[in-house]
Each structure stands twice: as C-alpha cells, then as structure tokens.
Amino acid sequence: MKKLVLSATLLLATCAAFGNVVINYENKDDRGYFMKVKIDGAYKEVKIESGSRAYITIQGGNSSCYFVTSCGEVEVNTGDIITIKDRCITVYKSLQQNY
C-alpha cells in the first residue's frame, strides 16, 4: 500500500512539473506570422493565423513565456489574452494568475 501511495504521489509531482502556456490570441493583422517564443531558455516558433481568434499551447516546463517581437520581449502567462496588431503584442492579464 505504501508503494502505491508513493508511486501515485511521484506521478502527480512529475505531471505538475511539466507546464504549458495556454493563451488566447486575436490577430488584427491581415496576414499570419511565425513568431519567436522563449520558454525555459529555449526558442520556439509558433504559428499565428491571419485575422483570427484562437487558443495556442506552447510546450515547456513553465507557466510563462516571452514573445520576441520587433517591439521588444513581451511576457505572457498561462490564461492571458493577447492582441496582435502590426506585429506588436498587447497582453491582457488573466484574473487566474497570482500576481
């Protein structure tokens, strides 16, 4: 029984250690982009569809990431809503976060 409880605890701790950033975006531009994102010190590219609203999941071990744009780096947390206009990002913070 102790092994079962210990195994379940380790499994839950392992699952909780891997975080993803899930955001809702609205692209107000007429074209789509591949945007560079920094999460856990690594760079990834995400596809932003043209003139649409969608959810996007960025795989990583953290609940926040940085979008690298020509307007600078923008921190985005899980649950945030972002608006993209002229390749620049505006972030609306989620009320779910503990700031």
From TrEMBL:
Entry annotated with the keyword Signal: yes
Keyword terms of this UniProt record: Signal
Name this polypeptide is given: Lipoprotein
Source domain of life: Bacteria
Signal peptide (UniProt feature, chain positions): 1-19
